[in-house]
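Hi there,

I know you've been waiting on this one. I reran it after we fixed the sequence typo, so this is the corrected version. Both the input and the resulting structure follow.
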Amino acid sequence: MRAFDTPTKKQKARLSQAVYQDSLDAMSDNLAATLIVLHEYFGFGEKRLRDFLENTSKVVKEFKDYGDEELAREKFSERLRDAGIGFSEIYFNEDIILSMQQQKKEKQSAVSVKEAQEMKQALDFMKSLM
């Protein structure tokens, strides 16, 4: 018996894929929130939102083209400073992140009405046996 289980390559790959997918989901959620704010609070219409998306893609590509995450953050920090925003201001605070994780966890563990009825029937049956 081993004192601990070492994940297999397949388990590591699945975990890596799950983390990657969570990251993509978070980025999509953030972009969706940004688009909603631009539309509802700043009056951006479809054309301006599409222009925003296109230019966002260009800037993201630029980030990747730096090749080094530290260098990219440094360059982006400079550009944000020129706009009057500190790089640290764009990170979500921990409470928001924890709230989003809790909502996702609750959604994943939610039981459908049909499943709840089946569990209730099984419980009722077990009670009748006692």
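Quick highlight: The chain has five helices and no strands.

Best,
R. S.
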